[in-house]
Amino acid sequence: VLDSTPFYAESGGQVGDQGVIAAGGNRFVVEDTLKIKADVFGHHGQLESGSLKVGDAVEAQVDTAVRAATMRNHSVTHIMHKALREVLGGHVQQKGSLVNADRTRFDFAHNAPVTAEQIREIEARVNAEILANTATDARVMDIESAQKTGAMMLFGEKYGETVRVLDIGTSRELCGGTHVQRTGDIGLFKVVGEGGVAAGVRRIEAVTGERALDYIASVQDRARQVAQLVK
């Protein structure tokens, strides 16, 4: 536990930061960051070398590559949520999410499978927002003022007296997570999975940036292999 930290603690579906806490030859590898209390973050991991004791002055360094990949997936989740509501209907409500460096997993209220055509429309809307490359805007305000802005508030979520209103593309939601500076930073968005997880709840999984390029390359490789098999 540090007196102050650049590490983001797991919250709102976004996983905690990874990185290193070091002091000279003493090195602690942070594998996860979690909230012990509202304003006390615990850095969990392994002491790789040396030793650390209470009162030591340390340098805390976040793994920026993992943070950047996680930010892309978190930011795109907001844009995807809006696209889901536009394509499937206003009944779509978030029922859970998990955002890490690999992908975004989003659970939502909907009573039927999302068709291939609907997925293509969702992808087109999200990628259009990415290509627009608009700046992200975050404002901290009291909960009443936030409600007046029309920001989407998650059903059943507990909010404090002050909240953070986040504009990403044409999406406006309350969120305290880490995000890209511009929508274009997301790079590319691709849905990789869709299915049911409970009665009236669907799950959609998607990738961004380099992971999206890797996914498309793997699909092309499989298509080439199939083409060769059937001549």
Summarize the structure.
The chain is an alpha+beta fold and 231 residues long.
What keywords describe this structure?
globular; 231 residues; 4-stranded antiparallel beta sheet; 11 strands; 4 helices; 34% strand; alpha+beta
Present the secondary structure layout:
Elements: E1 19-23, E2 26-37, E3 40-49, E4 59-62, H1 64-88, E5 94-99, E6 104-109, H2 116-132, E7 137-142, H3 143-148, E8 162-168, E9 171-174, E10 189-198, E11 201-208, H4 209-229
Antiparallel strand pairs: 1-2, 1-4, 2-3, 5-6, 6-11, 7-8, 8-9, 10-11
Order of helices and strands: EEEEHEEHEHEEEEH
Assembly state: single chain
Instruction: Estimate the global geometry from the Cα principal axes.
Output: globular
Query: Which regions have little confidence, pLDDT < 50, spanning 5+ residues?
Result: none
**Computed CA radius of gyration, to the nearest angstrom:** 20 Å
- Termini separation comes to 61 Å
Number of helices: 4
Structural class: alpha+beta
Strand order of the largest sheet: 3-2-1-4
- Mean pLDDT over the residues: 94
> Total strand count, please?
11
Beta-strand percentage range: 25-35%
Q: What share of residues is helical?
A: 25-40%
Describe this structure in words.
The model has no long low-confidence stretch (mean pLDDT about 95). The radius of gyration is 20 Å and the shape is globular. The protein is built from four helices and eleven strands; from the N terminus they run ββββαββαβαββββα. It starts with 18 loop residues before the first strand and ends with a helix. The protein has a four-stranded antiparallel beta sheet with strand order 3-2-1-4, with no helix packed on it. Strands 5-6-11-10 form a four-stranded antiparallel beta sheet. With about 230 residues, the chain is an alpha+beta fold.
